Amino acid sequence: MSKKIHFQIVTPEKVAYKDDVDSITLSTQIGEITVLPDHAPLISSLKSGEAIIKKDGEELSIAVSGGFLQIQPKNRAVVLADAAERAEEISEERAEEARKRAEEILKEKRLDKAEMATAAAALEKSLIRLKVARRRTGRR
Question: Quick one: 76 and 124 in the same domain?
Fold first, then answer.
């Protein structure tokens, strides 16, 4: 029997994912990381991105908005995320509308730094949600 990683993604609202998996790929603040069994313990901040989870030849994609990754001894890994959505939970239509709204806000010339940062974060989140939703339907 091959080793697995006991992995879970937890948000303030729910346990978004929990299972024993073969690998996890996440976007950290310093780059992409793939966690395999027997990975060294680690704590890292995450940036918004796509979590790709592999288990028994299958691949699952989850949109993750920020948070932290903790890799613990004995093949345990936990993501504490601000938000996480599985592909089937994402409305592609609503994500596309959010993308368009964020782009329109960013076109405004009189934004202060806080408004610009908020709009940029909303755009990034909507693009990630679209990527995850489209992966499920086979579109890119």
Answer: no
**How many CB atoms neighbour CB 35 within 10 A?**
21
Contact 1, 37 (CB under 8 A): no
CATH of the domain at 125: 1.20.5
- C-alpha–C-alpha distance, residues 15 and 70, integer Å: 15
Contact 51, 131 (CB under 8 A): no
12 and 77 assigned to the same domain = yes
Chain centroid, CA 107 distance in Å = 26
13, 10, 2: which is closest to 55 by C-alpha?
Answer: 2
Task: Report the alpha-carbon distance of residue 126 to residue 95 in Å, rounded.
Answer: 5
Same domain? 53 vs 106: no
Q: pLDDT of 74-96, one tens digit each?
A: 999 999 999 999 888 888 888 88
Q: Give the model's pLDDT for residue 1.
A: 53
